[in-house]
Amino acid sequence: MKVGFIGLGRMGQGMAGRLLAAGHDLLVYDQKEENLRVLHAAGAAIADSIATVCHERQVVISMLPHDAALEAVVNGTGGLADSMSVETAHMAMGTHSVDQINATNQSHADAGQIFIAAPVLGRPDLAASGELSIVPAGPAAAVDSFQPLYDAMSKQTFRVGEQPQSSAAVKIANNFLLGSVIENMGEAFSLVRKLGVEPELFFEVMMKGLFGAPAFKIYGPMIAEQKWDSHGATAVIGLKDADLVVAAAESAEMSVPSVHIWRGHLLKAIERGEGHLDWAVMAREQFRNSGLE
């Protein structure tokens, strides 16, 4: 398929690489020249503008870090709304707010264009190995037509309907649960450490007894061993996810009290200059609050 790709950060690099490896015709655009070099060396063509990346493409994928970037790419002068043909679809695969996804959908609808929201579940290392999960929502025929792209980038696809906001809701709720798991593990590890139990022993009990899910397998050792180097979402990205949970809850006119706990811990970590560390560092704040650091 002829694919345009905007946004070649850590996730975008891995995803675009998978598309190239699967034999798709890839045209890429990013504001950072160093992000383009790797993909160009692997066989991708480089576009010099958003308008150019839309040229004769069946789909333009955006993998952008926040709402402001998506808004600029879509509605800025020479952006996707100005530049895409009605035969080209825009697939937004970053993590964005429900309100921004709805606004983006409306911009494309006003231009007679196709829009699919398809956020991914997983970490950058999983993107590079094609082990992500993808949650697309949009016009059914369009969503179905891009299955070869999902297959190249992911291990599984969860279609959640024709309203793009549905995929944003699933992604935000998934991150809310994951953040809550990390926060709760930080509290549990703090408790056993305060009472003289080696955290590695508690991790073994946890995994062989109560739990065996990927979140525990990934974040449990990080918390037990206090290794906070980022191989996935940083504390800054985690804070964005927490803010999206708060905004989504406000839109739904409901309360999710636990998000404020891990959001507060992330804010404190960022204030300490630890925003570049893995968002599991929220557990370190619990350790500090417990007098362990």
Core attributes:
single chain; 293 residues; alpha/beta; Rossmann fold; N-(1-d-carboxylethyl)-l-norvaline Dehydrogenase, domain 2; 2 domains; six-stranded parallel β-sheet; three-stranded mixed β-sheet; 15 helices; 9 strands; elongated
Note the topology.
Elements: E1 2-6, H1 10-21, E2 25-29, H2 33-41, E3 45-46, H3 50-53, E4 59-62, H4 67-75, H5 80-83, E5 89-92, H6 98-110, E6 114-117, E7 120-121, H7 124-128, E8 132-134, H8 140-145, H9 147-153, E9 154-157, H10 164-194, H11 199-210, H12 214-225, H13 235-251, H14 258-271, H15 282-289
Parallel strand pairs: 1-2, 1-4, 2-3, 4-5, 5-6, 8-9
Antiparallel strand pairs: 7-8
Concise overview:
The chain is α/β, with parallel strands linked by helices. Helices cover 56% and strands 11% of the residues.
Shape: elongated
Task: State the CATH superfamily name of the largest domain.
Answer: NAD(P)-binding Rossmann-like Domain
Q: Ranges with pLDDT <50 over ≥5 residues? A: none
CATH class of the largest domain: Alpha Beta
Summarize the biggest pleated sheet.
6 strands, parallel
Separation, N- and C-terminal Cα atoms: 53 Å
**Total domains:** 2
Arithmetic mean pLDDT? 94
β-strand amount: 5-15%
What Rg do the Cα atoms give? 20 Å
Name given to the CATH architecture of the largest domain? 3-Layer(aba) Sandwich
- Count every helix, treating DSSP H or I runs of 4 or more residues as helices: 15
Strand order of the largest sheet: 3-2-1-4-5-6
Helix content: 55-70%
Q: And the CATH topology of the largest domain?
A: Rossmann fold
How many distinct beta strands? Answer: 9
